[in-house]
Every structure is written in C-alpha cells, then in structure tokens.
Amino acid sequence: MIWAGENPPAFPPDPDQALERTCFQTAAPWSGAGNLRSDVAIVYGIDPSLPSRLSTWRERGYRLHLMTGVSWGNYQNYLYGRFDGINHEDEAQTERNGQKISHGGDVYYMCPGTNFGKFLSVGVQRALDAGVEAVHLEEPEFWVRGGYSEGFKREWRAYYGEDWQPPYSSVDAQWRASKLKYFLYRRALQQVFDHIQAFNQRTGRKVRCYVPTHSLLNYAHWNIVSPESSLARLNGCDGYIAQIWTGTARTPNLFRGQLRERTFETAFLEYGAMQNLVRATGRRVWYLNDPVEDNPNHDWEDYRVNWESTLVASLFQPEVWHYEVAPWPERIFGGSYPRKGKPGEREPIPPAYATELQTVMNALNDMNQSRVEWDCGTTGLGVLVSDSLMFQRGEPTPSDSHLSHLYGLALPLLKRGMPVSPVQLENLTVTNYLDGFRLLLLSYHGQKPLGPDVHAPLANWVKRGGVLVVVDDDTDPYNRVREWWNSEGRSYATPREHLFEQLGLFGKNAVRAGEFVKAGQGGVLWLREDPAKLAASAGGDARLVSAVKRAAASTRLKWRETNHLLLRRGPYLIAAGLEESVPGEAKELRGRFVNLFDPQLRCSNAVKLTPGSRSFLLDLKAVHGNEPHVLASACKTLRTKRSASQLVLTVEGVGNTSAMVLLHAPKPPRAVTLAGQPLHDFDYSATEKLLRLRFPNETRPRELEVRF
Question: Candidates 3.20.20.80, 3.10.450.50, 3.40.630.10, 1.25.40.20; correct CATH number of 20-367?
Fold first, then answer.
C-alpha cells in the first residue's frame, strides 16, 4: 500500500543507523513492497524525476544514496548530441560485424569518450542538490567482443600513438584493446569523482563515492573488462558494492572434469575476491544479496535455495558487515514468478519466504562481531588473481571458457573445507596486505602481472616464511605480448622468470619443476602444469592437492581437510556442508540453536552439516542478559523502553507480509498489545525462555508492548 496522507509517519530515528549497516536499491518511489526498513535507500537513475523520488524515501526516514549506470542508461541526450552538440553514436560499443552492443533498443553500452564523464556529472548534480550522502556509479563494463567502433579507434590512436589494430588479429592486439578498455572507464569514473570532490570542497559536505561492480572472477568468466582493483587507487573512491548473486554464482565451472553449477562455492570465491579489493586499504565493500535474480524464469524454490547459498557464502567473510540486502525489492515482494510444476502459471512470493527474507535482512544489521572462530580445513590459503584475467578472454586464441585457470586452483582446496581467498595481485604493494596468509597459489596462465612492482613484496613475503606454489607450464601465448617483462631493457620469456629471479631461483639457481626449494624462511614449489587441464581431469585436483600438501609440510604448515565450513561470528554460526568433498561423517552441532532460515524461528538441539546444507544459526547459549530483548524478527524493531516488567518496541515491515518476533523472555507475558490493541497470536516456552509473537506487517510504525 502507498501512504496517502500528506505527512506520512516516519520510523523513529535509530541510534545505530549512522553506521549504515544495510541498504537496498530501487528506481521507484516509496511503496509498501519496497519498505525494507534498511538504513539506506539507494535511489536509481539520474533523470529529472530523481528529486521527487528521493523525497518519498526521505519522508519515510531513510538515509539517501544515488545509484546510476556508468556503461549504459537512458543517455540519449549524450548519444544524439543534445548534451554538447556532438553526435556520440560512434561511441556505442561495437562488435566485429558492426553490430552495436545494446542493453535494449538504443540504450547502448558506451565506449566513454572524453565528454562522457562530464555528461554523467550533470545528472549526478541533481542528486547532490537533493542532499544524497553517497553516489554509486554502477557497472563500468566494456565487452571483450567490442572494440570496433570509430570512437574506440580514436581512443586507441590517442592512447598508444599508433594505428588501431583489430582485437581479433593477434594476442597482442587483444591484450592492448583490453588495457585500453580498462583505462577508459577509469578515466570516466575519475571525472565524476572529481566533480563530486569539487562539490564537497565548495559546500563542506562529505558525499562519498562507491562503485557497484561484479567480481573480477565473474567479469572474466563473462568476457567483460572493467577497472576493478584500479578504482581503489582513484582519488575520491570510497569503495565498492560487490554485485554477487545467484545470476553470477550459478555460472557453471569445471571440477574433476565435471561441468555444473556450484553456486555456493562460486559465490564464496566471488565474495572473497571483492573483500580482497579493499582489505588493508581502509575502503569499504558492501555485499549484495538478491533473493531472486535477473532471470525471471525460475520458480520460488530455485530462488530461495540459491539465495541461501549465496547469503551463507557472503557471511563467511567476517571482515565485512555492510550489506545491500536486495536490489529492486518491488520485484521480490511485488513480483510473480513461474509456479513449480504448473507450466504457464505464475505466483507471488510465498508467505514463508517473505518472512524468512525479512528475518535475515534484519539479522544482517548485527554482523559487526568481534568474536570470530573457524572450524574447517587449513586456513590462511590464497590464490593470486590479477585484473588481467579479463584481458585474455577473446579472439584470436581459444579462451578457457570456464575460467579454469582460476577455479582449477581454488576449488580443490575449497572442496576440502579450506576457506581459500582470491588475493589481488595489484594490491601486494599495500602495506601489510599479505598478513594472515601462509600459503599462496599462483599461475600466469590466463593472467599476467600488470607491472614488475608486485614481485618484490611477494618475494619478501616468501622469504619471511610464506609458501608459494606456482602452477604454470609457461605455454600461455600471452607471454609474448608487448609488456614490461620483455621490454624496457628486460628480456624475460615469461613474467614468472622475473618473479623467480626476485626469489633468487633463476639462472644458475633455477628451481626444478616439482621440487620444493627454500627461499629465506619460506619456499617455493613449481608444479609445471596448466591449471585448466587439472580442472578438466578427473584426478587433476588430487595432483594439485598432493603438491600443495607437500609444500605445506616443508614449512610445518598444519594440514587439515574437512567436508564442511563452520564460522562463528559472535552469537551467530554460519555453516555449509560440502558436496564433492572428502569422505567422512557429517559434522553435527549440539546446543540450542534458532534457524534464521526458518520462518517459524524454531529452536533445535542438533544441526547436522550434510552435503549441500546451508545454515545461518543463532546460538542461544551465546546470548546473554536477564532482561527481555529481541533475538530475531521478520520486521524492523526499535526498542523504546525496557525493564524487567516491560518491553516496548516500534515495529514496521513490508506490506502484506507476516511478521515474527522472537524474544528472550525470563518469564511469561501478562499482556501483549500492538498499536494499543490486544495481540493474541503468541506462544511462550518456559524451558527455552522464548516468546514468539506473530502479526501482519504494516508499512507504518506501530508500538508493540509486552508486559511481564
């Protein structure tokens, strides 16, 4: 429902809201279906209706951010010259056959010219004038299959000082085309960041800038180039939103020669890659969760199972506690999707799923926990990745279409219960960036270091006690592109040779394949294989793990394999039972747990981590306090009064959904009222000291009072 009054009631100010723990994005004005009661509403689009749309969310008490697309949008004023008098149709990204790459109609993906960032800045100014606190510039994307427009050819000549070469014509041309695409969106974003910083300087405000972007892994997998890690070094960039959801994570990959969807594992690695963009940099990353996905042809059960997998994967990164809980909430709580087993029929969100979602969305406000404990396989493992994963994805050489150069190294460890992280190669120069890592895997198949400066800190890390496993047979044709390792006075056949020289393992002291060689207090093992071939083989993962285990043993790194991942974050337990894992009994948790994926918020004494299981649990033994308090809720709750005999809450939620509030209550209630009326739908367990309250959510704040 939409509030019809002139002055709609706003939710009372939350003293913790200044933390900006959760947010969501919407292109619509306020509505009951979008009323998620997160700290921040990110309003999408820079058209003239933006100020009025922003005002509807401000009236309801939300903090306001702006989001707009960088690579595409309804930017016809720029395209057709109404912005600057210059027709920019030749800046549309174009394929080899002359076809413009479209997001629908004449909404083209752009090859951003020198005026494109200026055009975006004019639209962003509407949001600045309307008082937004942050700007999100979404998805700077250049398709690998693009690079054939006249606009791109102009940029090539200006950037390289040489004639344009068709990207398909050689690996060198493809590499150079990708480097230019990488640069162009970094330039466009810097123009907008500069505009916002100048506004801040004039006004004394502190509007922040974020870039919502897919992970490096997904962009490489989908053949897209984006600035990724380099954005963190732009003046005025405050961080990212990690756009990871079922649609990215269900992209099939290879393990033991089997191609299939591995949504949980892929999401785990994608979220890890995004966290490693900002770790040790002081910047923020928000993790996106999407309860549906862009593909509207799945049923609700498919959406729920995959959302639980991606949500649990995101919670396995304890350093991150900011979340975008949904994009487009109106399509979740107001949309209809195919009814399972009933072709041609569609249905709205099941009530139980609507309640489950709101329970979890509210729990995400509480993830900034200092107590972090793992129960899993060996920790401190990483796989080095570079933004250049996106540079080797097109013609003329057949690309590794399943990104097995990465997954062939990471999945064998993750499947054995080891929380391996993609580690950003470009960030190795950041102070203390490798703190906490004990063993790293590296291959220059499918990627290359963008500069020589990353090798010295990597070599120093090894010499201080780190273990490096290099998996590479030196056959990647991109070793021959014109780059720093074979120019500027250097004559290495591969960048690996430069790294080994830094380690003192080149020339007369060359390391032999398969041999672990000490380097200072650490050491290196070189497995002379192509990781993609390991992934394509039924026994490739065992060969890799055998080599890694041998290297770990050489430095007394304790080796442990499990068929589960389990992480404690304060009173919360995040758990996953792993498929395609090591044999053995499933781990069983014993205690008193509330399953936050259960819309009834029931309590159990045992939880088994069977293969494929996903759990988000509240450990009641870790919850303390003698006074009544909220443990979980499928609505926003704000405590306004509490004593041993009374608890008063303000509650509000998504319209036309069912609320559940779970309270710790040392004694049974004498009376419960909602908006001044008696509430009878509740139950109390004296044994568990738990009180469950049930009522329909409304999109207005109401007082919930419990007397004891």
Answer: 3.20.20.80
